[in-house]
């Protein structure tokens, strides 16, 4: 049955895009979960939705034809910068920056969707993902983002690792914590925007957290947790895309359900001797 994904061009783009997303989403998700910033993915996904709705609105009202994915990406990056700015405005309550931006994203989404005369099939695909929505241009853009994210993580791995576990120590030791964190959150924004074609706005945060949650139950160290997160992410995406195609349902839901099953299996396996306690001890 998988031969269909290599026979039809649009399915090939979807499949290969899913492979890329299955790598970069859990890759950054590992740092996000360790830093206890999981809700950032939710906030930025809703800001991305506002950008997508804005793009659809511009197309509806002014006949401006460009992919709403690009406007969603711009909104997501701007939202990530605003989160970082608000974290320093509310230094004693930095977590409040996330619900502020999330609320703004939801508010603007409602307004733009209403002005664009409500939901349509394109917006539905952005909400829940689609196996037929990825074009050649989208694939090439996501490929560039994937390469960029992977290279940045490789170059700044030590800095990101230090910042994830002790931000104060990182700042004291001379690390440019503010700049590194801003770079990281902007990368997260790009990955979220890129993942929306496959997973959908409402479910993209799950792909960044569920594989990591499963890996935490099995891994013996941070690097192993990162590798397992990517493996679980890839498995979820591949099974989810194939199941979504043959069941004729949005792939986002099947990807998330697959991730939950993997997580439950990891929790069950954890009770047999390999546990997250070892991860905490090694870190």
TrEMBL record:
The keyword Cell cycle does not apply. GO terms for biological process: response to zinc ion; transmembrane transport. It is found in: Cell membrane; Membrane. It holds the Pfam family ABC-3. The chain crosses the membrane at residues 13-34, 63-84, 96-119, 139-157, 169-192, 198-219, 226-246, 252-268. Belongs to the ABC-3 integral membrane protein family. This is Metal ABC transporter permease. It comes from Compostibacillus humi.
């Amino acid at each position: 049955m998988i031969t269909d994904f290599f026979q039809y061009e649009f399915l090939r783009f979807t499949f290969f895009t899913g492979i890329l997303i299955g790598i970069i989403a859990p890759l950054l998700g590992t740092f996000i979960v360790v830093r206890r910033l999981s809700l950032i993915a939710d906030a930025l996904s809703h800001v991305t939705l506002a950008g997508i709705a804005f793009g659809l609105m511009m197309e509806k009202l002014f006949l401006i034809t460009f992919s709403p994915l690009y406007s969603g990406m711009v909104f997501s990056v701007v939202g990530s910068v605003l989160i970082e700015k608000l974290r320093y405005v509310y230094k004693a309550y930095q977590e409040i920056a996330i619900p502020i931006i999330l609320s703004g994203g939801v508010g603007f989404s409602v307004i733009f969707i209403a002005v664009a005369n409500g939901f349509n099939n394109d917006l539905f695909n952005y909400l829940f993902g689609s196996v037929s929505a990825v074009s050649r241009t989208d694939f090439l853009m996501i490929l560039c983002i994937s390469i960029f994210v992977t290279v940045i993580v490789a170059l700044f791995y030590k800095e990101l690792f230090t910042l994830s576990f002790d931000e104060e120590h990182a700042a004291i030791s001379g690390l440019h914590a503010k700049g590194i964190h801003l770079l990281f959150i902007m990368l997260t924004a790009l990955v979220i925007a890129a993942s929306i074609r496959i997973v959908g706005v409402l479910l993209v945060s799950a792909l960044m957290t569920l594989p990591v949650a499963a890996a935490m139950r099995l891994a013996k160290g941070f690097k192993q947790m990162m590798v397992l997160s990517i493996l679980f992410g890839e498995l979820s995406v591949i099974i989810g895309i194939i199941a979504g195609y043959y069941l004729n349902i949005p792939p986002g839901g099947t990807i998330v359900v697959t991730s939950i099953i993997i997580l439950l299996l990891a929790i069950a396996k954890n009770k047999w001797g390999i546990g997250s306690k070892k991860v905490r001890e090694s870190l």
